[in-house]
Structures are given as C-alpha cells and as structure tokens.
Amino acid sequence: MCRPPQKNAPKPPLPSVQTTALFVLLYIFSGVTQPLLMEVAVIHGLADRRCQLYMLFYFAGTAGVSLFSGSDESLSWTTTAKTALVAAIDVVAQAMNYSGTTLAGPTIFAVVYSSVTVWCALFARLVLGRRMSIQQWTAILVVFVGLGVTGLATVDLGPDVVKGTLLVGVGSAMHAMTYVLSESLMNNGKESVSSAKLCGVYGAVAFTAYFAWQVFYTSRHFVQLILEPMKESGTTIAMALAILLSISVMNMLHSATFFHTVKYCPGGSTSAGVMKGLQAALVFGATSIAFCNRIGGSEMCFTEDKLVSLLIVVAGVIMFARATDIQTRKSQGGYEDILSEVDISEVEDGRQFTV
Predict the structure, then answer these.
(1) What is the pLDDT of residues 200-245, one digit of tens each?
(2) Geometric angle at alpha carbon 262, from 257 and 264, rounded to 5°
C-alpha cells in the first residue's frame, strides 16, 4: 500500500528486529484497545450515535500521523480530490463500524471486522482485476461461513445487536474498499502518494467532515445527548476528555504502526493475517474479562457460538493469507491485500483509480 522508493534512489536502512517487534506489539495493542475504548465511551454517556462525537476524536488521531512524518510532499488538486473521496467513503464506513460496536458489543465487532482482509481481496478482483487462486476463494467462503454463524447467533440477542452486526458487516466491506482505492492512489506512477501523506490528507478530510457535523448538529443537542447522559453516568468533563483523547491517541498509534508493520514484519501477508486473528481473539478475551456480567447482556460474554464463529473466521483469514503469500511468490506480483510491499514497476499495469 505504501509507495516504494524509486529504483534510482538510495534505499533507507532496514529497521532493527527489535524496532519491528515493538511496532508489531503496538499495532496489536492499539487494535485491541480501540473497540474496548468505544465501549468505555458508551458506559460514560459519550457515544450517542447521532452526535458521533467520538468519531471526531478518532479521525483527529488519523490526521495527527502527518505531524510526525516529517514529509513535505505536495499533491495535485486531482490527487487531493481522489484522496478526499476515499476519505468520504471511510467516514461513512467507520461511522457504521463504531456505531455498530456500540449496539453489538466489542466481541461481535471483533469477529465481523476480521473479514476486512477478505473483503479487500474481493474488491481488488472487482476494481483492479486481480486474479485469485482456488485456495483464496475457498478461504473467502470459510470466512463468510464464520460470519454466517455470527449472524445466526445474534438473532436471539435482540434487534439492537442484529442491527449492530449488520452495520459492522457493511462498514467492514466499505472500509476494505478504501484500502483498495488507497492502494491505487499509492501506485499511481508520478501521481503516487506516500502512506504518511495519504493518512494525513485522509484524516484531515474526515476530521473536517465530523467537525462540521458537531457544529451544525451536535451543538444544538449537546445538553440533551451528551451532557445529560454524562451526568447520569457520573462522568466528569475531565473523565470525558481523557476517554476521547485516548480514542484519538490509540487511533494515531494504530495508523502509524500499521504501515511499518505490514512493510517490515517477516512473513508478509501470512503474518498480517495471523495478527488480525490474534487481535480478534484478544478483544474477545479482554471484553469478557472487563465487561461480562458487569454491563450489557450476553453480547459482552465469551460464548460457545462466538468461539466457534471466531475460530472459523480466523481460520479463513489465515488460510487466505497463506494462499496469497504462495500466489505472490509464484507470480512475483499481484494484490496482497495491502499486507506486503511490492515493487511499483511490477504492479503498474494501467489499472488505476480514477474519478
């Protein structure tokens, strides 16, 4: 997904094993923490789905990545417009994902969101014309079987949980689409965008959209939808700011460590698939420990249905990652779900994202 250095440019030295290991740990930690923090925001009356206040802080973290990149890269108006369109799609996607989390709970979110890797492959096939092997299609089928188990298990948990599961499902697919479009922007010849710049512009556009929503909607309902629920939950202004800033910091950390992790972690897409599954498993365990029998209902607890669903989805994701890794080694190119780097000269085939 990141733009590789040009062949005639000196390549920067590779980071140490210790540095890469640290980035991997931070990537996993931030990925596990995000849905848990969203549940904390719900508990403290900060997660009204109409106001979307928490998403303002979420995208502030994404925009903040560019502050530490040290990049002075400039973009054309056309490229900026394309990046803004990708950001607009993801604004809707992430609003659905985290609104769904507040309804369905972090454990169901973890299962359904694990499908992002596979959605990437499907959209890469449709948008970029990338071919997939029988093993990859088999893995995709396994993932959707796991998601089907999740869907059936949520029916008995009430309409809100079902609605939340559907929101996360659609949001995950849309979020995966932005990955594919972003890859196209980063491999767009002379118009290619670096990962840090894309992240910064993308975050700034999304932050601006949510800030406008706060001005035109939330400000008129702030007392009723934010302050009164905070008061009922016993949440102080200082506590609210701490929670919202934590969401911002964790998303900044997740965005920053993502690109380093997928580029330098040994094993390519296989390792990334394992990490995605590991995140889902850790969210399951952490949610059960922190929230089961304390808040909400059985959607917060580690049940047999969720365990079966998780195992199926994670198995499918890892199968797909392995198949992709094998396919890539054979072809010396091809789409890797933005989970490993390829030389730009090997993937430029004229199929680019156009507006």
Answers:
(1) 777 888 899 999 999 999 999 999 999 999 999 999 999 999 999 9
(2) 95
Residue 320 has pLDDT above 80, yes or no: no
CA dist 116 → 177, 193, 199, 306, 307 (Å): 9, 22, 18, 18, 19
Residue indicated by tokens 């559907």: 166
Cβ contacts of 46 within 8 Å, gap of 6 or more: 53, 54, 226, 229, 230, 235, 240, 243, 244
- Select the highest-mean-pLDDT range: 29-43, 116-130, 331-345: 29-43
Cβ atoms of residues 117 and 273 within 8 Å = yes
Summarize pLDDT for 138-149 with one digit per residue, the tens: 887 887 787 677
Instruction: Determine how many CB atoms are found less than 10 A away from the CB of residue 200.
Output: 24
- Closest-CA residue to 332 (of 311, 317, 346): 346
CB 280 within 8 A of CB 313: yes
